Amino acid sequence: MTDAQTSSEQALTDRGSNRSQRPSSQAFRAFIADGWGPRPDGLPERSPAADFAAARRDAVGRLFPGERLVVPAGQLVTRNNDNDYRFRPHSAFAHLTGLGTDQEPDAVLVLHPLDAAAEGPTHEAVLYFRPRAGRDTEEFYADSRYGELWVGVRPSLEEVAAQTGLRTEHIDALADALAKDAGQVQLRVVPSSDAAVEAQVAAVREQAGLAASAAEADAGLAEALSELRLRKDDYEIGQMREAVAATARGFEDIVRNLPRAIEHPRGERVIEGVFGARAREEGNGLGYETIAAAGNHANTLHWINNDGQVRPGQLVLVDAGVEVDSLYTADVTRTLPVDGVFTEPQRRVYLAVLEAADASFARAGQPGVKFRDLHAEAMEVLATRLAEWGMLPGTAEESLAPEGQYHRRWMVHGTSHHLGLDVHDCALARREMYLDAELQPGMVFTIEPGLYFREDDLKVPEELRGIAVRIEDDILVREDGSVENLSAALPRTPEEIEAWMAGLRG
To answer: How far, in Å, CA of 257 to CA of 359, rounded?
Structure first.
């Protein structure tokens, strides 16, 4: 190969622009920057979430006085070439700013420490982000990731400040802000949130000689932010009510479309698509990948392929939740008879699971109950029923003992998890704050027992093989300690389900 051939080759990193026919003349740049109408006057209203987010920031600030806390929204993630996945900010960022939907890629919330000796707030919160570029810039017309002509009008610093109540700065000011008082101020960043920001923080720490304790410091921040979400405020509870209501409407859509699902070779996809349409029409989208599992597919706990047929005589287990624009999600499961009527074996299994769910719910409303007790209550019921059906090698009591647990063959998951911005919310909380904690007002969690009898499980009576049932509801602990089933509008008993389905299908 000659030197001339080598010099004419295009670098691999430059080939992404090969299909571009972007004008580059100065005349074009002047022309495209001119002749636009004025921007709309005024600023957006303050978000209903803003005051609640401020209180959350104050709470976490009190846990880390004198320290600088860095909470990135995260970056856009490339799907392929110059196409990105739809952006969803990190849940900790959304919780502390009140921003949801696709706001704001590359943004970083920083809580800067104030004088520890002074009374009042412990930190000043500043939001660093990339505001819209001027119409006289190349970004305006040429940047497919951030440009206004490509992705729409981005907000200004003033607009986001009005919306959130936060002081806002250009993202270009972040590096200097992180380096301020380096060596004198502990620096924490939410781990696994934004690699570029974490690299900036690491560089500051290295220069200041603070790198040794970095991982422990960051893990402590992530843990605190997760535990901060264990109890929901009034705004969060309202958002979760909206998510559950939209989810209930999605389940109604599913029932109405079951005849179409039966006719389709991939009827599970029909169910998935119908619910997904509702989630996008009424919210930001799905809170998690929908499980639409007909027949034996429902015995795969996280069945999201959804490529199977839906046949009369089967049960279809649908586990789905709408995520509203604020990013709070519901998480509801209903197990439905495809043709609207339970068979006797299906009803037998369903009633056992319903009894377990009701027992767990009743336990949740008792004083001093711990989160782990909800699971134990459901397991007592299921073990008893399985023993009655002759499926255990001994008694229910023997199975419930730690050295037994035979009943868990048919119920391998937990009965409850916290719910909120994440479908499995508060996942980094300490055991003593989660499993071993007493239920407190503002907690929102699921109750979701199930029984799963695979077709190839020879320890299951033949008439029950291939049946799977899960019933999942979203539960709120009220201020007086009582509990509310947020998803109770969706029928739960076999009789209610059959009547509901008949009414929706006319």
So the answer is: 33
pLDDT value of position 305: 97
- Helix, strand, or coil here: 496? helix
pLDDT at 204 over 90: yes
Q: How far is CA 64 from CA 57, 59, 190, 211, 368, in A?
A: 11, 9, 14, 18, 30
Q: How far apart are CA 113 and CA 110, in angstroms?
A: 9
Residue 167: both structure tokens together: 């002081």
**Is there a contact between 313 and 339 (Cβ–Cβ < 8 Å)?**
yes
Could you tell me which CATH class the domain 234-505 is placed in? alpha beta
Amino acid present at 196: A
Sign of CA dihedral 413, 417, 420, 425: negative
| Cα 118 to Cα 504: distance, rounded to the nearest angstrom | 62
Domains 49-229 and 234-505 share a fold: no
Q: Vertex 432, ends 430 and 434: CA angle to 5°?
A: 70
pLDDT digits (tens, 9 = 90+) for 207-233: 888 777 789 999 999 999 999 999 999
pLDDT band at residue 348 under the 50/70/90 scheme: very high
Separation of alpha carbons 148 and 32, rounded Å: 12
- Could you read off the pLDDT of 60-79 as tens digits, one per residue? 999 999 999 999 999 999 99
- Is the pTM value of this prediction over 0.85? yes
Provide the 3-class DSSP secondary structure of residue 51: helix
Q: Report the CATH architecture of 49-229.
A: 3-Layer(aba) Sandwich (3.40)
| H or E, element range at 83 | strand 83-84
What is the residue extent of each domain of the chain? Answer: 49-229, 234-505
Is the bond leading into 104 cis (omega within 30 degrees of zero)? yes
